[in-house]
Specification:
Helices cover about 15% and strands about 40% of the residues. By secondary structure, it is mostly beta strands.
């Protein structure tokens, strides 16, 4: 690549480069590109599989009695997890047992309360894959 006298080259920080500095960096550019490609993983553009945890509906609509929502979850690569729920920042209780995916209904959602559902990896109850906080709109009169 030519470096004409009327061309000004800047580095990534916006600093003007000298002719010697540009030539030295240009020679190392193929190595830099290779290192970037290796660090980026597969160039296919596919995103890694991700964990999903969804509550539907959320918020739970107002109505007489208790409301309900259904949780659906999926953990990629055959991993399994358990869902625990905490009511108004209280202690956690097991909501759904060890499974890689599933769906379960919670039909005990009260207005004015907050429920945090956490999906943990395996049975260790240490690594949280994801969480969802569910609330309910005020009761209809």
């Amino acid at each position: 690549m030519a470096f004409d006298d009327d061309v000004i080259v800047f580095d990534l920080r916006g600093t003007q480069m000298s002719r010697e500095h540009w030539r030295a960096s240009y020679r190392t550019m193929p190595l830099l590109v290779l290192l970037v490609l290796l660090g980026c993983g597969s160039p296919t553009g596919k995103a890694p599989p991700r964990v999903t945890l969804v509550a539907e509906p959320d918020p739970v609509p107002a109505g007489p009695g208790r409301g309900s929502t259904t949780f659906s979850w999926s953990i990629p690569d055959g991993a399994r997890g358990e869902i625990y729920v905490s009511f108004n920042d209280g202690p956690e209780e097991l909501f759904a047992g060890l499974a890689p995916r599933g769906s379960q209904k919670a039909d005990w959602i009260d207005a004015g309360s907050t429920y945090e559902f956490r999906l943990y990896e395996g049975k260790a109850h240490q690594k949280v894959f994801g969480s969802v906080t569910v609330t309910r709109n005020g009761a209809k009169k």
